[in-house]
Amino acid sequence: MCIILIFGSTSAAFGSSFTFTNIRLQNALTLSLSAINDRGQIAGYASGVTHNSDGFLYLSGKFTTVNFPTGSSTVPESINNRGNIVGYYFDGMSNHGFLYSSGSFHTIDFPGAIETVPTQNNKYGNIVGWYEYTIANPHGFMMDSSGNFRTIDYPGAQISSLNGINDHGQIIGSYSNNPSGPISHCFFYSKGTFKSIGFPHDDGSGCTGINNHGQIVGTYYKGDVSHGMLYSVGKLATVDFPNSPSTHLIGINNKGHILGHHDNEGFLATLNENKQDNNNQGE
């Protein structure tokens, strides 16, 4: 059963407004929304239902379970406009990536890695994510539609992860030069060029979603407080859930609909403005 609460519009980024909608699943201790496609399908996961973590597909008030058959927990991370879902499952020993397409699961493991976590897929079947050869030492990867892998790490960083890819092949991710701490920074990557993105004087940031207009969402930190971050046409703006002490933006589709979390709840923010194309921002 789903309970939806509609909140009124509020002033937000670039002089525009958002309508916030809470999305809740009955009997779930926590609900995490991961991605939304242009059809309005939302992929995510919940805890406290049947497994440690249950994957789901949500559309028009209906939840459908998406659980890897042999996994003790399943975490969908992305859904493209073809309805194909990527994410990872835990087999009792480590995390493995998966692709869910046409009702069938397929395992994705970076060669030789002890852990593989896909984070986003585009309509061409390209998948990005991160992997580890050793614990706490992640590297970014991209897998093409033919199953070929390649590593993509932010130059000079000790830790890298790829968190999103759009249909133009533009990629966003996070990197850190401090393997013992949580501080990370957001980056944009296109055609071999990296660009760091973040608010001046923030205490860390992470990018988690990019659409075909080059709009990027993520989270930045000031002290112990997290804020939603929207990057569009070369400008950064804060997008926070009304009256919430913390906001994390997770994904954005080509219609400008944004997924996020606040206070351990998921929400959908509808951007009330005409989208602007930002495809050349990093080129």
Q: Topology, pairings included?
A:
Elements: E1 2-11, E2 17-25, E3 30-36, E4 42-47, E5 54-59, E6 62-65, E7 73-79, E8 85-90, E9 95-101, E10 104-108, E11 115-121, E12 127-132, E13 138-143, E14 149-151, E15 159-165, E16 171-176, E17 185-190, E18 193-197, E19 205-210, E20 216-222, E21 225-232, E22 235-238, E23 248-252, E24 257-262, E25 265-271
Antiparallel strand pairs: 1-2, 2-25, 3-4, 4-5, 5-6, 7-8, 8-9, 9-10, 11-12, 12-13, 13-14, 15-16, 16-17, 17-18, 19-20, 20-21, 21-22, 23-24, 24-25
Describe the protein.
- The chain starts with a strand and ends in a 12-residue tail after the last strand.
- Helix content is 0%, strand content 55%.
- The model has no long low-confidence stretch (mean pLDDT 89).
- The chain has one domain (2-271): 6 Propeller (Neuraminidase), CATH 2.120.10.30.
- It has a 5-stranded antiparallel β-sheet, with no helix packed on it. It has a 4-stranded antiparallel β-sheet with strand order 3-4-5-6, with no helix packed on it.
- It contains no helices and 25 strands.
- The chain has 283 residues and is an all-beta fold.
